[in-house]
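Appendix C reproduces, verbatim, an entry submitted by the partner laboratory led by Prof. M.T., so that reviewers can inspect both the input and the predicted structure.
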Amino acid sequence: MSERTQTHTEPQPQPQPHHDPASSSSSAAAATGLEIINAVPPPPQQSASPPSKIPLRPQKIRKLSPESSTPDPKASAASAGSKSKTANASSSTSKPSKNRIVTSRALALPRVVARSLSCDGEVEAAIRHLRDADPLLAPLIDHSPPPTFDIFLTPFLALTKSILYQQLAYKAGTSIYTRFIALCGGEAGVLPETVLALDPHQLRQIGVSARKASYLHDLARKYQNGILSDSAIVNMDDKSLFTMLTMVNGIGSWSVHMFMIFSLHRPDVLPINDLGVRKGVQLLYGLDELPRPSQMDQLCEKWRPYRSVASWYIWRFVESKGAPSSAAAVAVGTSLQQQQQQVEEQQQHHPQQPQLLDPINSILNLGAYPWGQ
């Protein structure tokens, strides 16, 4: 009886290494699998033990013996009991808290970057950033007045105007736009339901082609179906907005970029398909060839998060070199009455001077150039 009692008491301290993972790993690293098996009482003594306990201990030891350097996590969890459950509970609660912190930071960044250029001090902040980020822009900033982004149109009206002015000279586009506004009962009457009520024949009578009439109706239908809305457009991030607007027939990437800069006043829009900006980047950096649209993001990376303002100065730069920039086609800006007053004032003060169209603040004809789409 004393030998049997001694046989049972010798293996009992062995679960203790499984209870302490640090000591288990160190002892397992020092001992080979063979030594662990030999540490068990000899088979003759085990045969005298109760049959219910004999297969369990060799089975556990043999399971751990091949992995001498790594303790079995299941065995450690079983021996640790409530401590392992507490550790698991604490680790499971810590992971979601980290995820929540990361998510909140990711959501907070676009809100800071997407601050409208019409907000107080934002243009000044953009100019300071561009001076520091790209010294080649500093002379352009010094020789040009700061841009202003204080003209507001409703998104639906601005997009409608963009479609109407596509591929038209300024005078022809203005004439058609004036008649269109009158047909809708004024700019305030340019609403989705009003546009849908105009049939292609009515639009054709004021000079709108059948293709442009289909573009206008497609835009109005997307508003009516709830796919687009003024409030949704204002609150969308740049990437989602670009995706949604290019789904409208007749609205391409160039038109979307111009709309985002001059109507929504988004600060970090780079019109990579704009010929004027591409030509300006070539001149600014002394490139041998006109950069491709796919190269523009990399070349202008240093301008972030104010690429809209940098593009504005690039347009001015191209004009100073004597080349008409496509920004002269941008006009989500002034109303028709304001434009007429500016032209009349120009003629009064400079009757012999040819009319020069202010590329940023005065022109209404979005898409007047071949690269408008």
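The chain has two domains: 2-80, 155-372. Additional entries are available on request from the coordinating office.
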